[in-house]
Amino acid sequence: MKRERKRELKQQIKEMKIEAGVYEIKNTINQKIFIGSTRNFKTLNGRKFGLEAGSSTNKALQKEWNEYGRDRFR
Predict the structure, then answer these.
(1) CA dist., res. 12 & res. 4, Å (int)
(2) What's the CATH number of domain 17-72, 3.90.1200.10, 3.10.150.10, 3.40.1440.10, 3.40.50.2000?
């Protein structure tokens, strides 16, 4: 049973449509806009997690995130 379920899940992942594109993160205090791109929009939660963990690779965005807080971004 476990193997069959695992096989089903693998197949579902293979069939999933991957959507790429450009996105923006806007600071609503100073109106700065950070623009990024991704090969898979489903990975944007990882960007948010990185900011919340203080480990974003974009140092300017991380600094403002720390200064203003998550509620000031959309």
Answers:
(1) 12
(2) 3.40.1440.10
Residue range 31-59, pLDDT digits in tens: 999 999 999 888 888 889 999 999 999 99
- Residue that the structure tokens 């996105």 belong to: 23
Instruction: State the residue for tokens 């923006």.
Output: 24
CB-based contact 34:61 (threshold 8 Å)? yes
pLDDT > 90? residue 26? yes
Residue 53 CB neighbours (<10 A): 9
**Strand 33-38 versus strand 21-26 pairing type:** antiparallel
Residue 16 burial (C-beta neighbours within 10 Å; 0-12, 13-18, 19+):
exposed
